[in-house]
Design goal:
Largest sheet: 3 strands, antiparallel
Shape: elongated
Strand content: 25-35%
Mean pLDDT: 90
Number of helices: 2
CATH superfamily: Alpha-D-phosphohexomutase, C-terminal domain
CATH topology: TATA-Binding Protein
Radius of gyration: 14 Å
Helix content: 40-55%
C-alpha cells in the first residue's frame, strides 16, 4: 500500500452467512481496491471462508472515514441485493 503505511489505519472483519456470499461480495468489491478514487486512501480485502477482512490505510482521518463509509455502504447494498434475490420465487 505504498507510502500510506502507518498514518491512519483500520481493520474491519465481517463474517457473512456463507463462504459463497463472501466470494460474491469479495468479487464485487475487489475492482474498487485496484483503482482507488483518491491517492489519500487504499483498501485491501482478504477472504477466508465466510470472513471478509478489510485493511484500510489513509493519509488522514477524514480520508479513512470516507473510505470506511464507502465500503460499508457497498456492503450494505450487496446484502440488500442478496436478501432481495433470496426472497424472489425461483
Amino acid at each position: 500500500m505504498g507510502n500510506l503505511r502507518g498514518r491512519c489505519s483500520a481493520l474491519v472483519k465481517l463474517r457473512l452467512p456463507s463462504a459463497k456470499d463472501a466470494q460474491v461480495f469479495w468479487e464485487a468489491l475487489k475492482p474498487e481496491t485496484e483503482s482507488p478514487a483518491t491517492p489519500r486512501s487504499r483498501v485491501r480485502i482478504e477472504r477466508k471462508g465466510s470472513l471478509l477482512i478489510f485493511h484500510f490505510e489513509a493519509t488522514d482521518t477524514t480520508a479513512l472515514r470516507a473510505s470506511l463509509n464507502s465500503y460499508l455502504s457497498w456492503m450494505h447494498l450487496l446484502k440488500s441485493l442478496r436478501d432481495l434475490l433470496e426472497e424472489e420465487p425461483h
